[in-house]
Amino acid sequence: MRSVKVIIVCLLQLVFGLAKAQTQAPQFQTDTLHLTLNSAESMFLQNNFQLLAQRYSIDSAKAEVIQARLYPNPNFAYERGPVIPINDPNSQYPHSNFFSHSENAGNVSQLILLAGKRNKQIKIAQANVTLTEYQFFDLLRTLKYTLRTDFYNIYYLQQSAKVYNEEINSLQVVINAYNQLQGKGYISEKEVVRVKAQLYSLQSEYNDLLNQVNDQQAELKLILQAKPVNYIDPLADSAAIESLDPGKYALSTLMDSAYHNRTDLQIAITNASISELNYNYQKALAVPDLTLALSYDEQGSYAHNFNSVGASIDLPFFNRNQGNIKAARATIENTGLIQKSTQATVEQNVARALEKAFAEDRLYKNIDPKFAGDFERLMHEVLINYQRRNLGLLDFLDFYDSYKQNILQQNSIKFNRISALEDINYYTGTPFFN
Question: Which CATH fold would you assign to the domain 2-72+113-286+321-428?
């Protein structure tokens, strides 16, 4: 009997002391990256392929402005051919052979764009540069939001995984001890089966949790362009997170920031502006362009070395660009409604995000800071009672499971709170809570 007590005491020491283990990365991951949020964001800005590709789109749009500023090239035409002589005594070349002399003729023409077409093309190209820049910053805003939420999600999931890992290791120690005592009559088979069932349930839950961590890891590594063999270990600043207060900024301040910095709203406004510019350009295309020409003909006219100046213009009898003008007008209506819809969405997003942040912060602050410490102290008291055999194994496991559920719930509440604050950053386009 004394040996059994020794085994139980050693067992409990392992459960609450030596069996504690940290969450392990999968075996194929060999390189752990310990990243703070700032270092992760710096790595993201330097390495993300989507951002780098979008920067080239801005360069491409700027090149379109250069192209729009260019004037049409002049046109030059030259002809050379034989002179057909005539039997005219007054001719400069009487009785000349058919190929004795050659005809030389040239023409230089220049297209002149009317109705301000060139300036309108430049304005459209410049607006497209602005649009591309807003698209870049909107992509940056979205990816940064994903990075930050993944960072915190992984951090709190890892804290929860540590609880699972600790309890699984503890129960595994219990089962190993039971296996040594099996058949000696000290432990009932019912208790052994109960503990094994608890272990298998925890292993299943732990595996699901690790899958969540790995999914978030994969997404975060893609954003950071980290290697597949890397395992990212987020280093969160708990003190900084604790000090965040959603009541620090008024709703009007958040809304005003969203109006100015929300890139999807700026994209909608720019698209509406481009629609107006395109409508003006389509109306300008209804005006025909003018072509000026300067011609020279050495032999082919009634006079030798004949020079002339000419102009040509299309007559807009049939095609006055009616269809494109009508389509451009409809596009103005479309983009205007999209702008109003986007603005309404922004207002709803900001108001709901602030409401959610207050609710999550209130829930977080309602938790008694001493509760975790009291729970830990109570766990030790339960341990003493179990050592004295005043508490059954199943009651002990149930209490330990309650401790696990409490830690998981607290981690979930903490993540929901920081996630709600990140929503405010995302919906306002401004890092209020950083």
Answer: Outer membrane efflux proteins (OEP) (1.20.1600)
C-alpha span between 356 and 117 (Å, rounded):
51
Contact, 175 vs 199, CB < 8 A? yes
- Do the beta carbons of residue 262 and residue 189 sit within 8 Å? no
Q: State the DSSP code for 290.
A: E
Q: Regarding beta strands 230-234 and 31-35, do their DSSP bridges make them parallel or antiparallel, or are they unpaired? A: parallel
User: Tokens in use for 303?
Assistant: 């006079």
pLDDT in tens, 86-130: 555 555 555 444 444 577 889 999 999 999 999 999 999 999 999
Question: What residues does each domain of the chain span?
Answer: 2-72+113-286+321-428, 73-112+287-320
Radius of gyration, CA atoms only, the chain: 40
Count how many residues are written for the chain. 434
- Cβ pair 262, 346 in contact under 8 A: yes
Report the distance separating Cα 206 and Cα 210, nearest Å: 6
Which has the closest alpha carbon to 220: 39, 87, 57? 39
How far CA 298 is from CA of 304, 370, 379, in Å, comes to: 6, 106, 112
Distance CA 64, CA 70 (A): 10
pLDDT digits (tens, 9 = 90+) for 311-345: 999 999 999 999 999 999 999 999 999 999 999 99
Separation of alpha carbons 44 and 38, rounded Å: 10
Q: Which residues contact 16 (CB under 8 A, 6 or more apart)?
A: 170, 379, 380, 383
Q: pTM of the predicted model, to two decimals?
A: 0.83
* Contact between residue 110 and residue 75 where contact means Cβ atoms under 8 Å apart: yes
In the DSSP assignment, the letter for residue 48 is -
pLDDT tens digits, 57-86: 999 999 999 999 999 999 999 988 765 555
Non-local (6+) Cβ contacts of 179 within 8 A are: none
Contact 111, 291 (CB under 8 A): yes
CA-CA distance, 358 to 172, in Å (whole number)? 42
Task: Classify residue 103 by its DSSP letter.
Answer: E
Torsion of CA 178, 183, 186, 189, to 10 degrees: 70
CB neighbour list of residue 432: distance below 8 Å, 6 or more residues apart: 248, 249, 254, 257, 421, 424, 425
Give every residue of the chain whose pLDDT is below 50, as ranges. Answer: 1-7, 9-27, 29, 95-100
